[in-house]
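Reading a protein record of the kind used here takes little practice once its layout is understood. Each number in the token line that follows is a code from a learned vocabulary of backbone shapes. One such record is shown here in full, so that the layout can be seen directly:
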Amino acid sequence: MERDPTQLTPAALTAANQQAGRLTAFTCPECNGTLWEVQEGGLVKLRCRVGHAYTEESYSREKALTLEAALWTALTALVERADFLRRLADRYQRSGRELSAMRYEEQAAGLLEHAEALRGALMAVEPTEADQQQVS
């Protein structure tokens, strides 16, 4: 009987993964560790050295969620930086430093263009069938 991977030490789990499967180029959505592809009862699982395990479907779903979260974080960072640059532009404008104010305003406008393009891409992403089933 195979032991539960979460009960193995990291060294024992790494050894078990190496014996049971092949190393992939993919990383764990939870810890970013290397994943091994392991066959378990006719099912392909991806498992990292600390014990996180995914079916191919759950891995795809988790990576999609991770990617979407990262893109929303990037969008927030773009908008926040643009807001800050506009704040600097206003400050320089009030102090009579027109050239600096204009430079910061142009940078802010460029960032907002990127933010809008990213937002458009995020809004255009179609939910997967699995995502739709979770909402239902």
